């Protein structure tokens, strides 16, 4: 595991790199709004991806690196993410397909930046479809805008809602709520099975 820092338009970001033996692709994973690398679903996805031959970069946004818990505005999160993706793609993962992903807020960033960042696929862990109790504030358009193969792993009791599947979007419900801690083996299976299929498409 290697830690690197990346300068972005909104401060210093940090990435924790986990190498796979093969390196068929690289998965960049972002954290939730108030969380970090320690979320169990991110750890689970990292282990699963590296076993599948995918390098993983856990990306920490500049506001977290600076010690703030309140997230930056969406446009700043997206700009910082794209800077990190470009830097890592050139320095560490040249000529490899990039998969964008993350949990909760990080999943939203991955969706919003997938096209501009040239992502080959997207992984969403606990996508926050709407704030709890506020289905009128639907964020489904962020998912719908993604045109590459997409996986959404969602707790079956997630108060942030349940995204619908689509032609290029697979939604896997697993036991649990927004934290996705109740059955990490189910999260691992969902990610492993989807990666097995999508790597054949993007290799």
Automatic annotation (TrEMBL):
Residues 24-164 form the KANL3/Tex30 alpha/beta hydrolase-like domain. One of its GO terms (molecular function) is hydrolase activity. Keywords: Hydrolase. Pfam families: Abhydrolase_11. InterPro entries: AB_hydrolase_fold (IPR029058), KANL3/Tex30_Abhydrolase (IPR046879), NSL3/Tex30 (IPR026555). It comes from the Bacteria. Transmembrane segments: none annotated. This is Alpha/beta hydrolase. It comes from Actinopolyspora mortivallis.
